[in-house]
Design brief:
Largest sheet: 11 strands, antiparallel
Number of helices: 13
Helix content: 10-25%
Shape: globular
Number of strands: 45
Distance between the termini: 23 Å
Length: 756
């Protein structure tokens, strides 16, 4: 694809800004806390004493006008010391607590809830029972908003003390929240570094605004929006019959510095990895979208569905303030508690409100796109118009056998060129090539500073011939690389690896798709200490300078993010600054491709590949996947879903990629192997004709739409979907076994058609 000069210039600016961010973040870190470990006996939990109901419910009777911005008005509840937002276009009030008429008799909702620990004791404080009930909440006006401070304790006497008067053993916490309106949006913010907490007590986590918009009732088409895979809707109307009540979505995935953080009990999903820090809810003719602008690296989104007394339809976020890990089971008499880095930055949630025809998920995605562009997370530049959509081709050069440097060659430079020529002969005229398994270690790469190209894939002359063909055809070729992970044979694990909260080297284990070659079902790598990343990138660029790829595909940093407790401690939020700065370095005179696509990494990205095709939680009648991420990204970057040929139903996977506006994607070997199952999945020969036909279908549908925005997406009738673009192009998709007719247009079974 061709890119505008503006986008190239923006990359240069991004490089400068990213380097500055890295310098400032490192300078502001101070002396790292490291890890503290203590032996504990058992674990005791202390709950707050429930105060009267009036402290936990909202309504209009006690609202005081505070500020206005656009169509929004902000109100202060003088009884509960919470806030409400009114959308004046519809008259809808969004309350911080459940509405009085909708809440149960023993409503325990709160605006703010803290989990704290000291030795083997866990304590819970909340804004309603531990501050409002003790008359220790206070407020003051701020520019276009209000600031509320909650002085919290387990009893009224302590809560009414000044912080300096509180005895060491007494629990006291003071948290200030700022609510403002700006640019027609609502912002809720906490400065974690300004929280005051009794000595020796640690705030482990905070739940914040988790009852915003909570309700027990729902219209037929009401939903909760959650960031599972490309996005998912939880239908909460009368059709919602599934049994589950709550689900969790870890922003940017689990932190692998916690041992067994990615383990699931009994094969069940504990949480879904979220690529973008968003959530939302529709209520009648109104909806809102929450976007976590700060604190995203420590956030978990949790959704709840109303089932019975005491529960509500609601969605919100909690934030891990202090990394804490307990060994053993809660029943164990002897355990160790590890306390690590505490987050001292801000929590900042932006709420955008929509009404009437904009309350569908397309409205949420459009609002999200606008905010992320304004915040600099996504580029404001759009792709240049083009005649063809790229064919996203991943080729595996080599895979390891029984050791990191013993290889099975699957796609040499010469074979890869032959494959490109075969595709060209079948009228596949635009190809983006991701070349995997080229660097030492292949599918389990050497440490980046040692990862030079494997010599067995061909001579320098062979590579130059491939490169010249790529240039002649105006294709793009990306070198696949592991920025963070490395095999244990390539570097000293004790020196190079990041450390978890127990200060053990962090091992990263995932399923091995090439087990037929190595005999190992899983692949285990180690994760690099962040202090080594900058030097590793410099060494890597030097060692690959004679192999002029158009760009680099970062295959790991777009799907994993971890804290590092090695000698130089780095939190996840600090790690983001390091990684974005290094992507800016990689993007200097090169393009950048990101695998999977954690959004914090997309500022310098030109292409995102392997966006998850399926939700982590199983789809069901009331749990439906939507193309939220694709609506946000379309026309800003090229993107693809996971490769079509790796899906169980390849034709459905192909149609879904076109429906979502994605490049058709395939991952192939150029060598036939003895394993028939592997051959059927990866060897290109038997798939080439069908893939070329699929590409022609995708190109006819999407070829001129690279710079267009997706403006609507919906199910026309059971099994038939429509995607609309802002240039009045409509694409229809029929996933049924019968011909479907829509507006006099016939769509054959398992096919798509474009209507201009």
């Amino acid at each position: 694809m061709n890119y505008t000069v503006g986008k190239t210039a923006k990359k240069a600016v991004a490089l400068t800004l990213a380097c500055l961010m890295l310098i400032l973040s490192l300078c502001s870190c101070g002396k790292p806390e490291g890890t503290a470990a203590i032996k504990i006996k058992g674990l005791n939990e202390n709950e707050s004493v429930y105060s009267e109901r009036q402290n936990h419910v909202s309504g209009n009777d006690n609202l005081v006008y505070v500020a206005k911005s656009g169509l929004l008005e902000l109100y202060f509840d003088s009884v509960t010391f919470t806030v409400a937002v009114k959308d004046t276009s519809t008259g809808k009030y969004w309350y911080s607590l459940p509405e009085s008429s909708d809440a149960d008799e023993n409503c325990k909702a709160s605006l703010l809830s803290l989990k704290l620990s000291r030795d083997n004791q866990i304590y819970y404080l909340n804004s309603q029972d531990n501050s409002v009930a003790f008359s220790t909440a206070s407020f003051k006006p701020v520019s276009n908003g209000i600031q509320i401070t909650y002085d919290m304790a387990l009893n009224a006497e302590t809560a009414n003390m000044s912080f300096d008067s509180v005895k060491k053993e007494e629990l006291y916490a003071s948290v200030t929240v700022v609510f403002t309106l700006a640019d027609g949006a609502f912002y809720a913010k906490i400065s974690c570094g300004n929280m005051m907490v009794s000595e020796d007590y640690k705030v482990e986590s905070i739940e914040f605004m988790n009852y915003f918009g909570a309700t027990t009732s729902a219209a037929e088409d009401d939903y909760i929006f959650v960031p599972d895979a490309s996005g998912a809707l939880i239908k909460i109307g009368s059709a919602a019959q599934d049994e589950y009540e709550s689900r969790n979505y870890k922003i940017y995935g689990n932190d692998l510095s916690f041992p067994n953080a990615d383990a699931s009990a009994d094969g069940k999903v504990n949480s879904a990895d979220a690529l973008v820090p968003v959530f939302g809810m529709k209520s009648g003719s109104n909806a809102y979208l929450g976007i976590i602008l700060a604190g995203d690296t420590i956030a978990t989104v949790t959704s709840h569905r109303f089932k019975d007394s005491g529960s509500y339809n609601r969605v919100g976020a909690s934030f891990t303030i202090t990394d804490t890990y307990y060994t053993g089971n809660p029943e164990d008499s002897k355990r160790t508690k590890y306390s690590g880095e505490s987050y001292g930055g801000e929590i900042d949630i932006c709420y955008r409100f929509l009404s009437n025809k904009n309350t569908g998920y397309i409205g949420l995605a459009t609002a999200c796109r606008e905010v992320l562009i304004r915040e600099g997370v996504l580029s404001s530049e759009t792709l240049e118009p083009s005649e063809h959509i790229p064919f996203m081709l991943t080729v595996q050069g080599a895979v390891t056998k029984n050791s990191p440097h013993s290889y099975t060659k699957l796609s040499t430079y010469e074979q890869t060129q032959d494959l490109l020529e075969l595709l060209k002969a079948k009228s596949v005229n635009d190809i983006t090539l991701r070349y995997k398994g080229v660097l030492k270690g292949a599918d389990n790469q050497d440490a980046l500073e040692e990862a030079s190209p494997i010599k067995g894939l061909g001579s320098k002359k062979d590579f130059e011939a491939l490169r010249q063909y790529i240039l002649t055809q105006k294709y793009d070729m990306y070198l696949d690389m592991s920025l963070l992970s490395f095999n244990k044979k390539s570097a000293s694990v004790s020196k190079a690896a990041a450390k978890d909260i127990k200060t053990d080297s962090i091992a990263y284990t995932r399923a091995n798709p090439y087990s037929a070659f190595s005999g190992k079902a899983d692949t285990t790598s180690y994760l690099t200490a962040y202090s080594r990343v900058e030097d590793s990138v410099i060494s890597f660029l030097s060692s690959t300078r004679n192999y002029p790829f158009d760009g680099y595909c970062v295959n790991d940093a777009g799907k994993i993010l971890y804290s590092d407790y090695s000698d130089e401690v780095h939190s996840r939020s600090n790690a983001v600054n390091i990684l974005t700065s290094q992507l800016a370095v990689l993007s200097n005179n090169h393009k950048v491709m990101v695998d999977t696509g954690n959004f914090y990494l997309l500022r310098a990205a030109d292409t995102v590949v392997d966006i998850p095709r399926n939700t982590a939680y199983p789809e069901a009648e009331c749990y439906v996947q939507i193309p939220f991420i694709e609506i946000v990204l379309h026309s800003i970057v090229d993107y693809s879903l996971e490769p079509v040929n790796l899906a169980e139903d390849t034709q459905k996977a192909f149609l879904k990629s076109v429906e979502y506006g994605a490049m058709p994607s395939y991952e192939w070997f150029c060598t036939s192997v003895e394993d028939n199952e592997v051959n059927a999945k990866y060897y290109y020969s038997d798939q080439l004709t069908q893939a070329a036909d699929n590409y022609m279908t995708a190109d006819a549908a999407l070829g001129t739409l690279s710079s267009a925005r997706i403006t609507n997406h919906y199910e026309v009738q059971p099994g038939v979907f429509c995607t609309e673009y802002n240039n009045s192009i409509l694409l229809y998709f029929n996933y049924t076994s019968e011909t479907a007719t829509v507006n006099s247009i016939s769509i054959k079974p398992m096919s798509c058609i474009r209507a201009n």
